[in-house]
User: What shape does this take?
Amino acid sequence: MGAIAVSIFVSAVAVIGLIYFNRQDKKNSSSSAEIKQPKA
Assistant: This one.
């Protein structure tokens, strides 16, 4: 049960993070260029 809860939590954080960064990117695309770095 613990592993399932952790995986759901991680997925939720990832989705929220994507939405948050996408909204920030549309707000100020000039300053977000420094944040955009390819993940290895």
In short: The chain has a mean pLDDT of 80. The first helix runs from residue 2 to 27.
